[in-house]
Amino acid sequence: MTHFLTSIWGHRWAGAAVAAGIAALAGLVVAQTMPHGPATAPQALIVMALSLIVGLTAGLALRSRWALLLAPLAYMIAVELAHRGVAGPTVGAIRLDGTFGILALILGRGFHGLVGLLPMLISAEFGVRLARALSGLPAWPHSFFGWLPAALAAVALVALAVTIVLPARTPPILAADGKPLPGSIAEIAMAPIGGTKQGVLIRGQSTDNPVLLYLAGGPGQSSLPHPRVILKDMEKEFIVVAWDQRGTGKSYPALDPTADLTPARAVADTIELTDYLRERFDEDKIYLLGESYGTILGVLTVQQRPDLYHAFIGSGQMVNVAETDRRIYHGLLDNAAQTGNAPLAASMTAYGEPPYADIPYANGFVMTQYDRLYKPYTPPQSYLERGASSGLDQFGVLGSEYSLVEKVNVLRGLLDAFTVLYPQIQRLDFRRDAPKLDVPVYMLDGQAELAARRDLALEWFALLDAPQKRVFSFENAAHAVAFEEYEAFHRILLETILPETYPGWRKS
């Protein structure tokens, strides 16, 4: 080994070739096996370990601090070349012209750099010093302060690794004595769905209760912590299940291959999860609660397999995404004209009428302008207080249900899964495609909802043929009706939906 190193040290270009070659090879391996970067705790640790080896080897081979530049550069170039053609903003072209582009850079290349390049730099520095020591040159610091930077770097690296491996958890359901309630369930499971493992949060005071499966919006949104907080009252009568759909949150690793991320696959996943829950809790049927995009997935699912569901409940019902987007576009143009907002008018004119090719950036900008079109309303105080006291953010990243890597995945999934799925749902129109459903349908209608969404939802619901259908309207609610009016929704479940659809149900 020493003879080999000596021969390399005598030929600086040979050392550079070894350093660059092993780094490039590592980059290619990581990019091929992890198309969207490290997406699980084990993958992040593997990248860290591989980077330590690469950095050490590069430092030994080059015997110069040029290894600290050459190895990471070769690694990054290899990763970028291998990622060409991979779908999603977090690995796509770098965009610094807006918030979403910067966020994509941080979540994708930034996180990969944290777990990949940081260890490589530290070990490359150590490799250089070791090489100098082996060749008889001064290498090691002689004072405490000389060792301090290396010690701090090592501590930071260990702290990062420890943080990565810390598991996610969900709080237990407690009895009056402060101990876990006997017979209750509060767990995070990785369910076998579509050849992958996908994350679900299962909570309820009794495993004998009916199952309510919540379908989050987006597409691409993760939402494990929010039902746990906002819908916790329903855990008394239901087993409440929240699910990170393929390509989101805990299920972000299932994003690849992105060719499999289709509405048809999402429906198949929902049915597989339904069967998993039916078998586990010995229920013939379950309930589906859809929110926003989740209503699209819910309608498509009950349309295909009505025999699996007691009822479908739509909150923030979507009917025709393309038409909704067009109406919002023209609504914002009108708003800009009425308010004299020249920058908004210029931006909307530049984007043009949807659908946008520049997804998610154009859609992201438009979504930030939605507040201009909502009718003035004040959500119930109980909802505002429960949300404020939860400690959660808008996306649930701060929830204990997510580990460090999963927290990153929550936001990565929102960008990447949205980019893949959103264009595919543009052609749906339930007025044409779903005029009849063979399950009871209940719609929660927020009167302060965007007219571009609400008008279409009411139009579809009016013509819908279903064994039973009801619409419940709320003045002080908009898009997230099930959450905003969770107390009223709870009463509707107990007083209307369960008595009408759950065999043997008796209101207590």
Strand content: 5-15%
For the sheet with most strands, the description reads:
8 strands, mixed
Total number of domains: 2
CATH level 1 class label of the largest domain? Alpha Beta
Average pLDDT score? 92
Q: At the third CATH level, what is the topology name of the largest domain?
A: Rossmann fold
Low-confidence stretches at least 5 residues in length (pLDDT < 50)? none
The end-to-end distance, rounded to whole angstroms, is 78 Å
Q: Give the strand line-up of the largest sheet.
A: 1-2-4-3-5-6-7-8
Radius of gyration: 27 Å
CATH architecture of the largest domain: 3-Layer(aba) Sandwich
Output the structural class.
Answer: alpha/beta
Number of helices: 18
| Order of helix and strand elements from N to C terminus | HHHHHHEEEHEHEHEHHHHHHEHEHH
